[in-house]
């Protein structure tokens, strides 16, 4: 029987072979050194019981590593850790066997060689001086492990607030019908033609807010990024206001904005061209500027503009309202046409407001004197009380003017878009000078401010009165024409038409069965008809009515005086006599041809 060797408690035991058998063989394995009789054995070797066998286990140490990494933006510092590793070996027991390989089982143990101060020293050595995370380092040291650990954090810069712009008008009108407050849908009013008046704020820019600097883990300042800026370019009809933060319309029209990256360009296009007819498909056209319609205006629609209106077709059962001249190349049928906007209404305010200014200035001066005199006599009287006494006894025309202005305002405002300055002034007149309101007035500064405002509005109304807007058309039937300036009918004439002109009226053809008032004069080709249809021609006291041919039944009024023609006349010239007692008609008799006879 062969010999055998075994391991118990880290020691090798040997049993010799029987006669004729082979001795046991031992050899060193992993993690051990094997000694036989004091000599290290590296190869398999036969052993006997008499041999001195000793096992020595190995201990292996693998050093770790610690590196400091700072992020590219300088805001974070990390420890990259590889721990120290110590490997020891334990020799397990083995049963008796003829060939024994002494193998040991490895046991690994890790450790970290640095304390808190040493870790901080590593950070400082790598440049990390700011934002060291003590708690994070201590947590790592309590249970060290390999990996990447955040140990310092800088202060990032706060991001800036970029410039931004609010565009205050619809860039793409929807074209949808508007819904009234009562829920009804108005298919005549489509949100299709957007326009603005002068002074309208089109856009508002919000300035940038710069960011605040940060600090890197190395202690260096980190500059914030620059805010993104917006460049505004103002084209025609626009300007910058409010320190360059607002875009304001300098003229009326359609606002447009184009943009390319951070550049915004604004303009107001003063005119609108409507291709084709204005009808239910387009809805009403309301535009702050000039309007040109290449077709006709039909189906009860409205074309309204603050500027000039030109219509290449006809106007049929519709409304045309221009702030400037209105030129219609086609016929006007059962429609209402106005040129000059609210000028006629505004002119009604001009005279009473100017008269109020002339009367109120000396009245306020007299009230000041009355208050001073009362003070010298040891009596106290308030400015409002003094002025009311004067209005009752010395200036009775002022309360009458105020009543006239307030009533006129109530009458006109419901159907007209009056200027804001005028609305504010009349409101102030009503609140200050009517009823007991005047008695509450205790400061002449209020009256001085009111007089300044009144003077400004009077000047504005005078300027408006100087603007004349004309109507030009070839023919009109059953319609109303109203112009601040002249009305010129170039074609066949007018039938059943009412005309009101602040200037003159010229009808080159027939004017029959209607009424025409031209403040400065009326010139007609043929007035009335053989049937004696009543036709009214009126002018102001200083005006003249001229008619090439007039039929009986034509009534001429100059100023407050009128005269009806009872016989056919030609080359009629009618004026007011110097005494304003009647109408003087200078004319030739005209014998109308019999039917079928050439005239």
Number of DSSP helical runs: 7
| Mean pLDDT reading | 90
| Oligomer designation | single chain
Give the total of beta strands.
49
How much helicity do the residues have? 10-25%
The biggest beta sheet, please?
Answer: 13 strands, mixed
Rg calculated over all Cα atoms: 53 Å
For the termini, the CA-CA separation is 166 Å
Structural class: alpha/beta
Low-confidence stretches: none
Shape: elongated
Beta-strand percentage range: 35-45%
Number of domains: 4
Protein model, in words:
The protein has seven helices and 49 strands. The protein is of the alpha/beta class and about 600 residues long. Strands 27, 29, 31, 32, 34, 35, 37, 39, 41, 43, 45, 48 and 49 form a 13-stranded mixed β-sheet that branches. The longest helix has about 35 residues, at about 345-375. The termini are far apart. The model has no long low-confidence stretch (mean pLDDT about 90).
Short characterization:
The protein has 599 residues and is α/β, with parallel strands linked by helices.
Reconstruct the topology from this structure.
Blueprint: E1 4-8, E2 11-15, E3 24-28, E4 32-36, E5 39-41, E6 45-47, E7 53-57, E8 59-62, E9 65-70, E10 76-82, E11 84-90, E12 94-97, E13 99-102, E14 105-111, H1 116-125, H2 134-142, E15 147-153, E16 164-167, E17 177-179, E18 185-190, E19 201-206, E20 214-215, E21 221-222, E22 231-234, E23 238-241, E24 246-249, E25 254-260, E26 263-269, E27 271-274, E28 285-287, E29 290-293, E30 302-305, E31 309-311, E32 315-316, E33 319-322, E34 326-328, E35 332-333, E36 336-339, H3 343-376, H4 383-393, H5 397-413, H6 420-433, H7 444-465, E37 471-477, E38 480-483, E39 487-495, E40 498-501, E41 504-512, E42 515-518, E43 521-527, E44 535-539, E45 545-550, E46 554-558, E47 561-564, E48 569-576, E49 583-589
Parallel strand pairs: 3-13, 22-26, 27-29, 28-30, 29-31, 30-33, 31-34, 32-35, 33-36, 34-37, 35-37, 36-38, 37-39, 38-40, 39-41, 40-42, 41-43, 42-44, 43-45, 44-46
Antiparallel strand pairs: 1-2, 1-12, 3-6, 4-5, 4-7, 8-11, 9-10, 10-15, 11-14, 16-19, 17-18, 19-24, 20-21, 23-24, 25-26, 45-48, 46-47, 48-49
């Amino acid at each position: 029987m062969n010999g055998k060797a075994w391991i118990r408690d880290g020691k090798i035991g040997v049993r010799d072979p029987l006669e004729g058998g082979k001795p046991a063989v031992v050899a060193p394995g992993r993690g051990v050194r094997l000694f036989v009789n004091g000599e290290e054995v590296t190869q398999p070797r036969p052993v006997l019981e008499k041999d001195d066998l000793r096992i020595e286990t190995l201990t292996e140490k693998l050093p770790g590593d610690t590196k400091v990494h700072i992020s590219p933006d300088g805001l974070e510092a990390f420890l990259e850790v590889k721990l120290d590793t110590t490997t020891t070996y334990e020799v397990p027991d083995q049963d008796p066997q003829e060939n024994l390989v002494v193998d040991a089982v490895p046991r690994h143990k890790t450790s970290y060689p640095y304390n808190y101060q040493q870790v901080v020293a590593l950070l400082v050595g790598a440049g990390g001086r700011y934002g060291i995370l003590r708690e994070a380092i201590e947590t790592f040291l309590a249970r060290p492990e390999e990996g990447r650990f955040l140990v310092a954090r800088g202060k990032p810069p706060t991001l800036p607030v970029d410039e931004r712009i609010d565009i205050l008008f619809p860039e793409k009108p929807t074209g949808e019908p508007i819904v009234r407050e009562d829920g009804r849908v108005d298919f005549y009013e489509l949100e299709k033609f957007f326009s603005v008046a002068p002074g309208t704020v089109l856009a508002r820019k919000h300035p940038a807010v710069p960011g605040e600097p940060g600090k890197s883990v190395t202690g260096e300042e980190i500059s914030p990024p620059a805010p993104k800026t917006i460049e505004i370019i103002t084209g025609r009809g626009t300007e910058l206001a409010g320190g360059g933060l607002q875009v304001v319309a300098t003229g009326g029209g359609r606002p447009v904005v184009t943009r390319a990256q951070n550049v915004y360009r604004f303009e107001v296009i003063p005119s609108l061209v409507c291709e084709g007819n204005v009808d239910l498909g387009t809805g009403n056209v309301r535009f702050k500027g000039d309007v040109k319609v290449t077709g006709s205006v039909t189906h009860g629609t409205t074309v309204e503009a603050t500027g000039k209106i030109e219509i290449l077709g006809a106007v049929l059962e519709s409304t045309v309202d221009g702030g400037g001249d209105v030129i219609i190349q086609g016929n006007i049928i059962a429609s209402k046409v106005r040129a000059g906007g609210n000028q006629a209404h505004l002119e009604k305010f001009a005279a009473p407001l100017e008269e109020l200014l002339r009367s109120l200035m000396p009245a306020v001066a007299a009230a000041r004197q009355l208050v001073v005199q009362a003070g010298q006599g040891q009596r106290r009287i308030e400015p409002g009380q003094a002025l009311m006494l004067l209005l009752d006894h010395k200036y009775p025309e002022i309360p009458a003017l105020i009543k006239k202005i307030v009533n006129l305002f109530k009458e006109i405002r419901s159907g007209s878009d009056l200027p804001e300055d005028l609305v504010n002034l009349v409101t102030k007149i009503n609140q200050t000078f009517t009823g007991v309101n005047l008695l509450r007035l205790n400061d002449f500064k209020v009256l001085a401010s009111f007089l300044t405002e009144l003077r400004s509005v009077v000047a504005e109304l005078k300027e408006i009165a100087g603007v004349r807007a004309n109507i030009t058309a070839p023919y009109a039937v059953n319609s109303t024409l109203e112009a601040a300036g002249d009305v010129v009918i170039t074609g066949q004439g007018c039938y059943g038409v009412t005309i009101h002109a602040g200037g003159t009226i010229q009808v080159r053809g027939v004017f029959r069965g209607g009424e025409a008032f031209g403040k400065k004069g009326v010139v007609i080709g043929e007035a009335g008809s053989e049937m004696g249809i009543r036709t009214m021609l009126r002018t102001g006291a200083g005006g003249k009515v001229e008619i090439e041919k007039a039929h009986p039944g034509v009534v001429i009024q100059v100023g407050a005086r009128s005269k009806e023609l009872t016989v056919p006349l030609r080359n009629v010239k009618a004026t007011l006599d110097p005494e304003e007692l009647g109408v003087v008609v200078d004319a030739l008799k005209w014998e109308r041809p019999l039917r079928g006879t050439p005239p």
